[in-house]
TrEMBL record:
It comes from Desulfoluna spongiiphila. This is 4-hydroxy-3-methylbut-2-enyl diphosphate reductase. It is an enzyme of class 1 (oxidoreductase). Its EC number is 1.17.7.4. Belongs to the IspH family. (2E)-4-hydroxy-3-methylbut-2-enyl diphosphate binds at residues 41, 73, 123, 161, 217, 219, 261. Its cofactor is [4Fe-4S] cluster. Keywords: 4Fe-4S, Iron, Iron-sulfur, Isoprene biosynthesis, Membrane, Metal-binding, Oxidoreductase, Transmembrane, Transmembrane helix. The chain crosses the membrane at residues 324-344, 365-382, 388-407, 428-445, 451-472, 527-544, 556-574. NCBIfam families: ispH_lytB (TIGR00216).
Amino acid sequence: MKIIIARTAGFCMGVRRAVETALDASNGQDGPICTYGPLIHNPQVLDLLKGKGVPAISDIPETGEGTVVIRAHGVPPESKEALKDAGFSVIDSTCPRVIKVQRIIHRYAKKGHHAIIIGDRDHPEVIGLNGYAYGLGHVVETLEEAKALPDFENAILVAQTTQSVHFYNEVKAWVGRTHPHYLTFDTICDSTEKRQADILAIAQNVDAVVVVGGKSSGNTQRLAELARESGKLTFHIEDTDELDIDQLKNLKSVAITAGASTPNWIINKVYRFIESGTASEKAFFGIPVSALKMALLRSNAYLALGAAFLSYACSMLQGIDGWLVSAAVAMLYVLSMHIFNHLTAISSDRYNDPERADFYDRNKWPLAGFAFTGGGVGLLLAYSQGLFAFLVLLTMSLAGLSYNAPVIPKRFFEGRYRCLRDIPGSKTILITLAWGTVTALLPALTSANGFALSTLPALVLACGMVFARTVFFDILDMQGDRIVGQETFPIILGDKKTIRLLKNLLVTLAVMLPVTSAFGIFSSLGLILWVCPVLMFVLLIAYQNHLVLAGVQLELLIESHLVLAGILALTWSLCIR
């Protein structure tokens, strides 16, 4: 089945800003935090915030303490002042597009203009907008209500930012014919317009549409209405348990779109659910291919294989013959550390990859035993290569195991940075250095030749490929990492700057490999190994342009670059013999 995710699906700018504001406040402040009213219209996000100690209050108390975050929809000005008077520290996360409409209404209300607001009367955004009209506001839900209004000497026409574009155009046309002196403003958010246009275009080319988002979300309801009006089978769901997968199994294509309040982890969860639930059951030695791929990825077995292959490629680049034990050490170390860290980081996996979190939850004891055994065997193999190699691997293993554990006792320091994981960017840096050590440095350290001129560029290649791979996954996991307070590179720099950084890195690696081979620093393997960073670069661009979607296939493609390095190295070694 072909699955399409609308480019406009998910958080709009205003919602993302509000959620990130609330999450950053909960992760970085010690005092009580709450939101005034539901922050956004999505039950999963509201449950998440409540679980992080950020409840929603519906009434303003006479006295309050701590921080209150104003919802993305905005509030009337008197509510904002009342919160301040009660003693709250107020963080205003009103969407900037909504603030723009508030200012228009306020500016003209001071001149005596009536404000005709096209929107849902009970919607919190509309209630907030009406507050800025200071008694001169008139909320209109239908064209008949607009026609029933008295003729005003001066009036403005605005719309709720998530209003139906078609309906607002209809009202504007009527106002233009009957009240040409009214001032009309186009206040529907361009995100709303694009989202509605997107679903109309996509619906023409698919058999069914799945709309993901809160049942109380106005913009999500309108997306579902537009999908139904297109005549296609339409499902409006909040989570996967509401979707009957059997109704999709015989279809050739399905589109997924989502309202402005729907987080990426829910969209990805729905995508994975449909992807796995409708996959054709091709078998490999009697094992369903889809189940095999999931098992290899969830258990980190494929990633560990990639470590062995990368170690082999780095050994071949450096002209090291005794590569087998080093490759086994790299494989077992990576397998052990990644399993242990997934076992201790299930909280973020619950948002980034719920299926992986469930897999680790169900199999935590067998996986822990597997990781412990693998790590122990890896240390024994390292010891067989020498005491120094053993001590290096032991040090890295202890550092990896302590990554999620508090290093500084709370009685000595109650600040935020008590664990290695609390240091911004630490996850990516430590993974990169650890992989570089076991795949490039240890083979050189334990070889007869020791370190050589080729060791440094081999280390740069290993670290560069692993950094790109890890940060790529960090981009996919941004929302889940922010929820648990994990400050990765994409969260620190932003996704656009991070992608630019990765592109520059991959281009550098692609140029470095053939150049170092041409100058005799590397073996001639570098003349073909440049393919790996180039293909990663292409995959990054494909992801940017929505040509590949977050899911099992993308995970497999990202991890396959490490395996490809080993395959190219093996092919090269066979050809030069």
